[in-house]
Amino acid sequence: MIRGWLAEGIIMVQKTPYYSYVVGELPKGCQYCVRGEKLVLFVTGVCPRNCFYCPLSPWRRKDVVYANERPVRSEKDIIEEAKIQDARGAGITGGDPLARLSRTVEYIRLLKEEFGKKFHIHLYTTGILASEEALEKLYDAGLDEIRFHPDLFQPNSKFFEREIENMKKAFDFGWDVGGEVPAVPGFEDRIKWFASLLDKLGAKFLNINELEFSETNLRALLDRGYKPVSDESSAIKGSLEMGLKVLEWGEKNTSLNYHLCTAKLKDAVQLRNRLKRMAKNVARPYMEITEDGTLRFGIAEYDDLEELYEFLVEEAEVPREWLYINWEKKRIEMPVEVAEELADAIEGDVKFYIVEEYPTWDRIEVERIPL
């Protein structure tokens, strides 16, 4: 049972407005994240481990860099993406960012120099490569929060002892230290052990993520007997419930802050809020911003776009400022109302649609309605 505050002021497990659960307070990095204010900076897909539950897509399991959905080819791409998002911080992830330490340190410095010391940066690492020298470089660059993800779920891991010993070194620096692990059903005792260790070392928090199926971990999870919550969900049955048990145990037995991050939070809150922030900065005058942060507008498709454009301006008398030729996607974009009127008035090979797409670099189309 999820409880609220007791009259005596004792902290219990609380459900947040973000469809997640917390004991104490959200880690600072999460506070920015749920508001959609964190740039997701993927610095490399390289990782010294090969976790059976890793959700990374095949095209990211390489030495590639992304700022949100944008492939990074220069530092300007990172800054531009952060500005489009109105980001107030960044989460540095991978792979393991420490597998490309110089690059990671360079990006931390870049963001701090561009946006100031208050730009909050947190980083995820396995801990395998977190030597004292590496940690010192990250701290000196301005990293605010470091989250360790040791190999709790694979028996006889050759990395485990090194991960734990390296994690202990992180407490010599003046940043926030915490743990972040998936809620893998069947490993409740291992996560409790990790929580106890974090508490003993003086960590601030433990984040537990609801485990989900992905394209790349599906077979490994099914082979281990894990099942989805339902046909409509990618969340794994029993993961959320186990996470809640750890939180209730942790509230009674440790002084850590806990956050159980659900699959719903990532889609319904984090992504949605980020899209809204981006949409305000990328929407053209003819585009509507929906409640979900997507862009909605009309389009016309035809073999000769220049011919169609001139016809719409000269013959249909559509103001030029209402039309935009998108050469890359081979279409003319316009307000929804204009597309609806033109679809009723123009016959022939011109096709009109109402489309809805993400305001992200890749502009994924989520809906197309023919007129």
TrEMBL record:
Coiled coil: none annotated. Gene3D superfamilies: Aldolase class I (3.20.20.70). Keywords: Iron, Iron-sulfur, Metal-binding, Pyruvate, S-adenosyl-L-methionine. The keyword Transcription regulation does not apply. One of its GO terms (molecular function) is iron-sulfur cluster binding. It comes from the Archaea. The keyword Transmembrane helix does not apply. Pfam families: DUF8061 (PF26257), Radical_SAM (PF04055). InterPro entries: Aldolase_TIM (IPR013785), DUF8061 (IPR058374), MJ0021-like (IPR040087), rSAM (IPR007197), rSAM_sf (IPR058240). Residues 32-245 form the Radical SAM core domain. This is Pyruvate formate-lyase activating enzyme related protein. It comes from Pyrococcus abyssi (strain GE5 / Orsay).
